[in-house]
Amino acid sequence: MNAPALILSDDQAHAYDQVTTLLRGAGVDLVEGTCQPAQEGRQRVMALMGKAGSGKTLLLAELVKALEATGVEIVSGDFESKRRKERRTLAVLAPTNKAASVLRMRGVPATTIHRIIYTPVYDPEYEKLAEWLMGNGEKPDLEELTDEAFARAQASFEAHKSVPAALAAAGLRGSDFITGWKRRDEPLDIGFVDEASMLDDRQFDDLKEIFPNLVLFGDPAQLAPVNQSGKLVFDTIPDKQKLELSRIHRQAADNPILDLAHALADPQLGFEDFERLVEEKAAQDERVVWAGRVEVDLMARSPVLVWRNATRIRLIKAFRNVHGAPETELLPGEPLICDGIELPLKHRKKRLDLEARGLIKGAQVIYLGPGRKPGFSKLHVMGAIEPQVSAASIVKIEKPDEEEPFIPYAARMGATFLHGAAVTIHKAQGSQWDAVQVFAPDLYAAARMNRTEAGQPLWKRLAYVAITRAQSRLLWVVRNRLSRPTGGLRIDDLGGTPAPLALEMEQDGPPML
Q1: I need a labelling partner for 391 at 20 to 30 A (CA). Which of 36, 42, 72, 436 fits?
Q2: pLDDT tens digits for 165-210?
Q3: Where are the alpha helices (DSSP H) in 358-513?
Q4: Do residues 52 and 258 lie in contact, with contact meaning Cβ atoms separated by under 8 Å?
């Protein structure tokens, strides 16, 4: 078989060979380490499916390494070299920023589908700098950058493979080198899509227009997109173009969290039976906890996962109450979730500045305190290269039985946030945390409703997604109770230095960064 040196299971090696065959037909030979110019031809689509722990991400990462070794260029979404006929490219994509960041944390240069469809236009002088960073040109002569600034940019790019991050390290910001956005009008080449269960039909159609060679990686047991009536894109792909991985790899075969997730596949298993399994695992292994209450200390860094929106709002209120948070302001250390950027279309490059610094829809953020101007907040963006930033903010805190949210901070436009102490299981897809609390009463309510999705009881799909968000520890919360905090909210554990270029947007007149 054509598997790489890393030891793979039989099903992984078979899948690797199948992708190798697909790419060889497209002119890229992973065995010989060569690639030929792209040729017009048929559409190639393949789906590699597998449940949590089956090694999908490991396989994707090894394929990316092999493609890079052939000379295929990675397209990141933040900069592309000028198109050359002989150039072959690969883009590693995810449907959401959260899912893309999970891949990046594992060393895979991933971006979002949106960032591939809409690409930035660079100022010509800084385009030369970007090409140099990528090894495609000579070092440019830019008077405004010192040798030290060039060195910082090069070191940042080698570490993170991000052009905007590298230019920021050199003392520049997005509005200096990005002049606008454009919708892609030319196709790309090879596309790998992770978390493909989250794709809807429209996204899948867009991807097939852009990539003549497309490989989807996904979990068929995940929840379907809310607008898909319980159907996954895998259902539309012919069986001969699908492969399913079965062996469990991640976190060792004896992982009790994965054992519980895979037990849900038993069609005879009811909710009460499953809870007995959870209780048994908790008695045997400290990685599973049968919890009589929500641990409030965990909520500051890892949200409680719930099914019902009303439960989410009640838990957030309880979290704030137990910490003595006033209604009129946020406390430093409160968790937030970025809900998007509210900027008019003419300020699209300002949006890119925010996104380049990690303020993207679904990003987990910790509030540090008020900014220098009214409506501004100092924030720590979890997982960002330069995590600390000051930005115009619109913070919305929903309350039980009230239609309109309470807004303690509101700029006229900027980054919008919801409270992040609890989140719905649907929105948690694509994310992972070290420890996860699952609010079991919500799943019991779903079980009582006897709802199904894609032929499976809805509660099982919800439980599967929620459980597999936990990397090391699962807390199965069985009662509607909240613990008392062991201390106040904190920010001293976050680390990172204040960003040298705070993203501040004026409230008066056009937004300024």
Answers
A1: 436
A2: 788 778 776 667 777 667 777 888 999 999 998 888 888 988 998 9
A3: 425-428, 440-448, 458-467
A4: yes
